[in-house]
Design goal:
The protein is α/β, with parallel strands linked by helices. The protein folds into two domains: 8-202, 2-enoyl-CoA Hydratase, Chain A, domain 1; 206-261, Lyase 2-enoyl-coa Hydratase, Chain  A, domain 2, CATH 1.10.12. The chain contains eleven helices and ten strands. It has helices at residues 32-47, 70-73, 78-96, 113-120, 147-155, 157-166, 172-178, 190-202, 206-218, 224-239, 242-261; strands at 8-13, 16-21, 53-58, 63-65, 102-106, 109-111, 123-127, 131-133, 170-171, 183-185. It has a six-stranded mixed β-sheet, with helices on both faces. A four-stranded mixed β-sheet has the order 4-6-8-9. The longest helix is centred in the last third of the chain and has 20 residues, at 242-261. Residues 26-27, 29, 66-71, 109, 111-112, 135-136 line the site of coenzyme A (COA). Coenzyme A binds next to helix 2 and strand 6.
Length: 262
């Protein structure tokens, strides 16, 4: 019997786990099975100590992901669409809050839910042939997997309105100028660029990275005074960790060694 291909593929490259959305004939448009599989793969990557960084990409040369599956959407009534949006939002929030750093390796179209997924990651590394859009308005709908909120958080209100209210598709180069892309690379150099970033991130103490990310994620959600309290509390929690003690001691040891040899 013909076995359906897995909706998400996982591969390990040292400390980097790469998850690949695997529906290339439909430009990796999301299905519930794909979201469930992404969730399960995320669980696995988060539980695996050897995995320090998670990257997400799309299979095929054309798309990262072309968004929610329109063939499914068109059949939904309003309550079903509402539930579908909540499921998508849960998946995006989970990525946004994941304890390990995440990289969207965008290798083509990142549209609708695909763009939301990229924005839910900590970093976007894009191929020079990537493009980004929220086309929902052209379908008389709107982003529903966190797009309106994540876009504002990541690129500011004015820029988010350009995307959400025009439906226009912008090149990776234009998006780099908007400021929400970490790095651009030629298609054949995309994976190397992601690996370099992953190597940098994986070299740091994972708990320090996790604490810093949690504090960063609260910025914009909390009033400044509460955000600063949150930051100070996380600073203190991290400061008590063995990693922080070792990092500070290491700096002092290097300094005194340099003094002795000079
Ligand atoms: N949902 C379901 N199927 C989708 C899809 C989506 N979001 N995006 C692409 N596909 C399917 C196409 O229907 C087509 O399927 P088919 O081969 O069975 O006809 C296949 O993927 C290839 O797409 P196609 O449109 O032929 O490629 P293209 O290069 O001509 O155009 C896009 C690419 C991305 C511009 C176009 O597919 C598109 O506009 N997709 C919808 C994007 C969107 O609005 N996303 C937000 C959804 S809420």
């Amino acid at each position: 019997m013909h076995k359906a291909p897995p909706p998400v593929l996982a591969a390990q490259h040292g400390a980097l786990r790469v998850l690949t959305l695997n529906r290339p004939d439909k430009l990796n448009a999301f299905t519930p099975e794909m979201l469930a599989s992404l969730d399960a793969e995320l669980d696995d990557a988060l539980a695996d100590e050897a995995t320090r960084v998670i990257a997400i990409t799309g299979s095929g040369a054309k798309a990262f992901a072309a968004g929610n599956d329109i063939e499914r959407l068109v059949e939904m009534d309003s309550p079903a669409a509402y539930r579908d949006m909540l499921a998508g939002q849960r998946a995006m929030l989970r990525l946004h809050e994941s304890a390990k750093p995440t990289i969207a390796m965008v290798n083509g179209y990142a549209l609708g839910g695909g763009f939301e997924l990229a924005l839910a990651c900590d970093f976007i590394v894009a191929s020079t042939n990537a493009s980004f859009a929220f086309p929902e308005i052209t379908l008389n709908t709107m982003p529903g997997w966190g797009g309106t909120q994540l876009a504002v958080a990541k690129m500011g209100l004015a820029c988010a309105k350009r995307f959400v209210m025009s439906g226009k598709r912008f090149s990776a180069q234009a998006c780099e100028a908007f400021g929400f892309i970490h790095a651009l690379a030629a298609p054949e150099a995309l994976f190397d660029e992601v690996q370099q970033l992953a190597t940098t991130l994986a070299a740091f103490d994972p708990f320090a990275v996790e604490m810093a990310k949690r504090a960063l994620n609260r910025a914009g959600e909390l009033p400044l005074s509460a955000g600063l309290d949150f930051e100070a509390a996380h600073y203190a929690v991290n400061f008590a960790s063995e990693g922080a003690r070792a990092g500070l001691r290491h700096f002092m040891a290097r300094k005194s060694a340099a003094t002795v040899t000079s």
